[in-house]
Amino acid sequence: xxxxxxxxxxxxxxxxxxxxxxxxxxxxxxxxxxxxxxxxxxxxxxxxxxxxxxxxxxxxxxxxxxxxxxxxxxxxxxxxxxxxxxxxxxxxxxxxxxxxxxxxxxxxxxxxxxxxxxxxxxxxxxxxxxxxxxxxxxxxxxxxxxxxxxxxxxxxxxxxxxxxxxxxxxxxxxxxxxxxxxxxxxxxxxxxxxxxxxxxxxxxxxxxxxxxxxxxxxxxxxxxxxxxxxxxxxxxxxxxxxxxxxxxxxxxxxxxxxxxxxxxxxxxxxxxxxxxxxxxxxxxxxxxxxxxxxxxxxxxxxxxxxxxxxxxxxxxxxxxxxxxxxxxxxxxxxxxxxxxxxxxxxxxxxxxxxxxxxxxxxxxxxxxxxxxxxxxxxxxxxxxxxxxxxxxxxxxxxx
Length: 399
Hints:
Layout: E1 13-17, H1 22-32, E2 36-41, H2 61-66, E3 70-74, H3 80-90, E4 95-98, H4 104-107, H5 112-118, E5 123-128, H6 143-149, H7 169-192, E6 196-201, H8 202-209, H9 211-220, E7 237-241, E8 247-251, H10 255-265, H11 280-285, H12 287-298, H13 303-312, E9 316-319, H14 323-327, H15 330-334, E10 338-341, E11 348-351, H16 375-381, H17 386-394
Helix pairs in contact: 1-7, 7-8
């Protein structure tokens, strides 16, 4: 079916002074939905995430993931001439996003409050580690540090050892709340005609995601224990090795499902009503025995056989996939979720964003920019002559 609706953010201009993950991932969502995103970077190397690794055909995997579809302007904001260029861009911008170190934006006059006072229609977003004020306001806030401060690490891992999440959970949480905050502020602007500040803290974002263990602890008095892949209060709910070296996770949510598992998967019908296994309380209390029974059967099957038998019995299950297996996942292929994104290193595979807008234009998955790739074009659009641009470049104000 042909697209009948434009992308919802087409026509909006976003200016971002951003680095690392939280702000870039937020503005990438806006770019995917049609906004023009102008990424302002330091002339001397740009966003430091460009140098995290070289895994994406010589480019940094973090940067490729979070920065497609943007225009790169290499600009020295510590130079008054660079700051003047930025304000010229902000005259026509709808959204400004920054995640500089705490206090740095305010020193440049680029904090949300100052910008919204100067540009009343602008939606301006401050992303910080711990928020304005309080004893942690100026504390360094990298993702793993915030995971620790927010207690995520304390509930992740095995009983013997806490571990961090394998993805930058604090950065992603802040990014998605920033994205949501921008959309909400734009809706409000449509009613009031005014933009306004949006404040996002990584700690507060991840603390919200900690809602279940937080409320369980505050109101029940006990912190949930770390159980690895097992569930703290449901059994069997874990990953079990199969004969071909893979692992299959299954979840029995109630006693009816246990009876089906016993009869149709384990082929041990006597366990369906055995008092040691018949109730979840009994199975959890005797978790080692429960797991041993399940592991003994699945360990004799291939992963394919185990999944087939579990699904035939109506038992929820999943393969414990590697990242490489995710990249080849049959469901993503069947739903045509992969596209190619251009980059300085050539075309790279990337997933369509998860927000689908049936009947509308497909997400705009633009190229990953080289540092300063759009500097000249952006400055010319502001009315600068080639001679003036050359002068600024010669003085290190732009690159």
